[in-house]
Design a protein that fits this description.
Structural class: alpha+beta
Radius of gyration: 14 Å
Shape: globular
Number of domains: 1
CATH topology: Aspartate Aminotransferase, domain 1
Order of helices and strands: EHEEEEEHEEH
Oligomer: single chain
């Protein structure tokens, strides 16, 4: 029996810990958002739907990645994703997970914009249930 491959969980820097803390503080102020610890990450939920993973002590694939989920994204949003050089597909692309590679504090605004898109997409999922 073969083992399933999983994404490597990379240790993050002190700088990324600060950035993740700032992101969590902002996003946890949005309606219906809760955080749950998950394998060195912080999973962000809107109701029952997970929409993002913030690094806490570990990150998915790269030490400076914030992951977010976009289900049911429009062609326009998918085009924006493809044109944004900070966005990478993840090994979980089939499940609509994407990675935002942070390089500096200036990327916080961009990450928040994409987290907002993922948050809205999660809201559509919750309404469909």
């Amino acid at each position: 029996m073969s083992k399933k491959r999983t994404a490597p969980l990379e240790k993050i820097s002190e700088e990324m810990k600060v950035w993740s803390g700032l992101l969590a503080e902002e996003v946890l102020g949005w309606p219906d958002v809760v955080a749950k610890p998950m394998f060195g990450l912080t999973a962000l939920y809107r109701g029952p739907a997970v929409f993002a993973m913030l690094p806490k002590t570990r990150a998915l694939g790269s030490p400076n990645v914030v992951a977010f989920k976009l289900v049911g994204a429009s062609a326009k949003v998918m085009g924006q994703l493809k044109r944004d050089p900070r966005i990478q597909e993840t090994m979980f692309a089939a499940a609509k997970w994407f990675a935002f590679e942070m390089e500096s504090e200036e990327d916080l605004r961009g990450v928040l914009e994409w987290l907002g898109v993922a948050y809205e997409a999660a809201g559509v999922l919750v309404k469909k249930r």
